[in-house]
Amino acid sequence: MKSKIGDIKEPSPSVELTGKIVSLREAKSNRNGAESIYHYGIIGDDSGTIQFTAWNMPSSIREGDVVELKNCTARIYNDRIRLTISSNTEVVLRPEEHMEVKRVYNEFRIKDLNLSDPYVTVSGTLSAVTERETEIRGEKVKLFNAFMDDGTASVRISSFGQPIEEGSQIKITGAKVTEFNGRLSLTMGQKTQVEKIKVSIEKGNRQYLLWDMVSPVGNVGFTGIPVNVSDRSGIIEKCSVCGKFAEGSVCRDHLDAAVVKDVSCYFTLEDGTGSISCFMDGEILKKYAGIEGDIESIDPVEVKQRIVKSLESTVVKVEGNMSQKGESFRLKVISIGTVDDKEVQAEMQKEQ
Amino acid sequence: MEFSKREPSRWIFSRELKDSSQIEESGQDERLRPYIITPLGTKVKRIMVCGLITSATSEEASTKIVISDPVGSFYVSASSAGFNELVRTEMQQFKTGDLALIMGRVTHFKTEDGAFLFTVNPERIWTATDHIKKFWNARALRIASRRLLAIREVQKSPNATVSNISKLGYAREEAEFAINAVSKYPDYDFEKLLEAVSTSVSKDQSGELVEAKKVVLEIIRKRSDDSKGVTYEEIVKGANELGIEKKTVDDSLNGLGNDGDIFEVSLKRFKIV
Q1: pLDDT tens digits, residue range B16-42?
Q2: What's domain A106-196's architecture?
Q3: Chain B residue closest to A343 (CA)?
């Protein structure tokens, strides 16, 4: 007998249903040295949604497809009911069927957003709003981009069609969590509800332990000890047009553009709970490492030595924007400073 | 999701490592180092420690140093063979009394009577400052304290899962570690470990223990008979007269023993090395 998704509350060895693939992602599993690919996501119908893991998903299935599942399993995983699609499950594509999905949007702090919960309610303040026109399925639509900050972290937000205002404080219900260029983003569509509210943002409370981070978000900070300052740190050449590295004094995207010299460094920050690769450049690095004047006139070896000396064997407090590549988190540093005795004393009081 | 493929360094106190007795293989690849599971459940391959060098010796084939934290010592060894030749050269610049920050991989050795001994193979060594040492102490204590809170939650619910412990506000990894601790060390006194660490760190941070150690060392030096040494009772009495309480005398004696400044001639009789 076919089940309605909203009625699946208990584990069951065999479930049959028809639902729409709301989200579908691919991941790699490495068990005992053997690597395999699996899929996970959300499937829904007019009664609700449920997360699934698919060990055997036909390659033709895409997000938005309606599928019929026979002989899948309902299990409790991480305290939630979840479907498992295995090699015993029959997955049949129903291209002729259309289905409305009833969605439930849980409220999240921006720091805790993650791709496993792709439809969410989030509140925060908007900044850096830009507006441009784009085309979706042949129709012209206004696209608004901004950053939303709720005091725990910030995230890039894109609104298709719905205007958003600089400085406004809003609650959005039904935004989709996506990933773009290794960073988490929120997407608002026509059905996303927007409500004006008051958000209280605590300043200076964004220092986290690395093991507390679940996703690559912006405007977060960590305190730790830098190790392994990369050999690539020092004076670099950048494209004067796009700002990207110009390897061999030539920008791959702007062959005729002039190159300018700058300083940059990579280092690993250890905080006792994890490690993160950090990147820092420009004025932030110059100021921190005490590099003054025209860098063209300073010996590159000396610049590198100053960078290494300023970072290694010291306690630093960094803030920046996280990104993710593979399984690694990275941090583009936007501010860096040392830690004073008062802050060390405060560290002693934590959790005591 | 992990922060990095690189194995992060764990910041743990020497006593947590010393009390470890559980080893977990990393996988089928025999070349991979196993994880050491500590009593607080920490999965350790690499550690970072900061403390005072209490012994530094160098022989033809290897360089060894002992680095002390507020509750004990780590044994660090670099050989002329293998990948850490460069760091061995750096280690040779350090001497007793220097503060050092060391990152390295931990190897274990099981004795015939089943006890585990641990050595740190250094990957990097830096000169440290008192400020770095205090930060390392404070952060390591914070991590251990949070771990104890998570362990208490696991002890309250026998069917605890990573998911329901992390819902209480703990990171997934620390929830996993807390479950490790309770399942692999069912009879271990977690509270006692934390109390010992917390007391010693507080004294170390305030400089109280450093001063007390100087006083206790002086008492032993002055009253030491050439052959017999000074009794524990005499040391406590002498220290009490100078306003130092018994618990601090105990911590000082442990610290001085770990530092290699004193040794126990016979039961509860101490002498300068």
Answers
A1: 999 999 998 776 555 678 899 999 999
A2: Beta Barrel (2.40)
A3: B135
